[in-house]
Write a structure and sequence with these properties.
Two copies of one chain form a homodimer. Chain A is α+β, with helices and mostly antiparallel strands. Chain A is about 40% helix and about 15% strand. Chain A has two domains: about 80 residues, Winged helix-like DNA-binding domain superfamily/Winged helix DNA-binding domain (Arc Repressor Mutant, subunit A), CATH 1.10.10.10; about 70 residues, Dna Ligase, domain 1 (2-Layer Sandwich). Strand 6 of chain A pairs antiparallel with strand 6 of chain B, so a sheet runs across the interface. Chain A binds a DNA duplex through helix 5.
Chain lengths: ~170, ~170
DNA sequence: TCGCCTGCTGCAATCGGTTTGCAGCCTGAT
DNA sequence: ATCAGGCTGCAAACCGATTGCAGCAGGCGA
């Protein structure tokens, strides 16, 4: 139960890339490392938590770029290996850039009330995932795993919210 | 690695309910078991896979009800314990009704290409989740876990799709 | 150097899932 | 019978995301 995760063992999946490899891949594919893309990556590098398109847009200064172009650039960067996450409960995609060269796979623990995000090293065990894939005849099996709960601060400050509308399935 | 899942052990979370308990709860809360709600639950009961609001709407016959009312009713039913799932990769919520009285928790394995859904019994181990919660000071921790891959049929019929846009994070 | 091709960008429109305001209806309690 | 509250249909709006279009910029060959 550590960061040994099948998502990284599978040959079909691009390994999450630090900044320099992303820009190298852009160049290798006759795409350009434009100022906006550099700025996007810089914003991601300076933030510990994954950011939404809107948050990136705001961080760049709303006047300097178009939100639609951010969406397009995030799509491009994702195809270069940037990690896109969908699993924070609000339906918005988030993007995450690793700043060191290590293959630092992780999941997240999200506070149901204040949306605080904590990085988690726990992961679904590879051997179980492989057995699962074999059992059902699937290949290229990956998973999404996110945790939700009440963070220490919200435990103190808030009465319990209605548990029936908790987001995790 | 079975269906022992912390989501059910936690006292704050409503246990997933079969049809009769949902209707009982409606009545207990001075809500009504209207014809439309009965029809919705009947549709869910007859389908093995979780359904979206639109699918339920279509199954009911588009002329007989309003989509907005379906959304409202699904919200109501969810607050009564019906299980709502967000994790099938297309951004649409899905609803699931258990037809037997057993506490039959499960997750899903979704085909990236044809969206086929397979119920699976594997779950993130409770003891790890509890340790995780304690380690970070969170309470009421639950999780979302979904698996994605290529189903046997799509392995035969389709060339590999671009792995860089695979949906799981 | 001149075009030309390709990719990038801003703008506006659009789409799909979801929510909400409003008015009318039905039902159960007083 | 009356009244309040919940339910419903309709229309509009919201939000994340995508797309068509036109203009622009940079690289490359003639």
């Amino acid at each position: 139960m550590n960061n040994a995760c099948s998502q990284h063992a599978h040959p079909h999946r691009l390994v999450q890339q630090p900044l320099t490899e992303l820009t190298d891949r852009l160049r290798a594919g006759s795409r350009k490392v434009t100022g906006q893309r550099e700025a996007i990556l810089d914003v991601l590098r300076r933030h510990a938590s994954p950011l939404t398109n809107r948050e990136i847009h705001a961080a760049l200064g709303k006047n300097d770029c178009d939100l639609a172009t951010i969406y397009r650039n995030m799509h491009t960067l994702t195809s270069m290996g940037l990690v896109k996450r969908f699993d924070f409960g609000d339906g918005a995609a988030r993007f995450e850039l690793l700043t060191d060269a290590s293959d630092h796979h992780h999941h997240h623990l999200v506070c149901n009330q204040c949306s605080a995000i904590v990085e988690i090293e726990d992961c679904f065990p590879t051997e179980y995932e492989e057995a699962l894939a074999k059992r059902h005849g699937f290949t290229a099996v990956t998973h999404r795993l996110e945790f939700f709960g009440t963070c220490p601060r919200c435990q103190k400050s808030t009465a319990a919210v209605d548990p029936t509308i908790a987001r995790p399935s």
